[in-house]
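Incident review: delayed structure delivery

Summary: a single-chain prediction request sat in the queue longer than the usual turnaround. Root cause was a stuck worker, restarted by the on-call engineer. No data loss occurred. The affected request and its eventual output are reproduced below so the record is complete for anyone auditing the incident later.

Affected input:
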Amino acid sequence: MLIEVNNCRLYVDVVGSGLVAESSRMVERPVVFVLHGGPGMDHTTMKPDFNPLADVAQLVYYDHRGQGRSDSDKSENWHLDQWADDLRGLVDTLGVRRPIVLGLSFGGFVAQNYAARHPDRLHKLILASTVARMLPGRVFDAFQQFGGSTARLAAEEFWGGPTAANTENYIRECVPYYNRTEPDKNLEKRAIWTPAVIEHFSKPGGENWTFDFRQQLADVTCPTLVTAGDIDPITPLIAVEEMAACIPEGVRRLEVFSNSGHGVHRDDPRVFEVMKNFLIE
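Output delivered after worker restart:
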């Protein structure tokens, strides 16, 4: 379905019941807004992988502005403040009183900014394979470690300014190191890819290289689960640990999964049990 938020139509899909019958009563389940990665991808990159969470919660998938099946809009509106405010608008439009936000990778950038800008509309937070800031050197060193000089060079060229040519090379030389399991080849066939968004976001001087949520994370007051893989080249563990350390100790929980890469769920589905327990605590 398309829902208009902040003068833009967002594509939204809901998986799971918000109210379930238990004996003689109806029980309200938590509502989780699932924020996809990219930028430039769509929510189908997380579906059906995250559907098991619907065993305990209602999932609201949506495509960020400019991506997937949502309206493209102008490139000047492709930025983290707009994407965070779009989430707030969607939460309010749907009338969700205690929203839980789950952000994966780039979706985690949006989730952190949402937590900073709209703390009054956040019940719990899940930050999956994401970081508080992107430092190119960390990424290049990780690709060097896992893929050698060829992968490092491909990463340097791509993240130095994504183009059609270096994107193809990056997919060939770097993406295989994202995870230890074989990627789902059907995923890229069914997903809608909008390269203009990542080209805009990650160009030299683009927001991908300038955002920094370390200071704002110190003000997070809601329970926050951070999940990470120890062999993730794009959001390296050292960077995830840095992000987690910025969140107050009393509300943060960091779970690191061994022999897992970017998007832990692709390598170790046990992460969903950790997430389920966090959702119902």
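Verification: The mean pLDDT is 96.
Action items: add queue-age alerting; document worker restart procedure.
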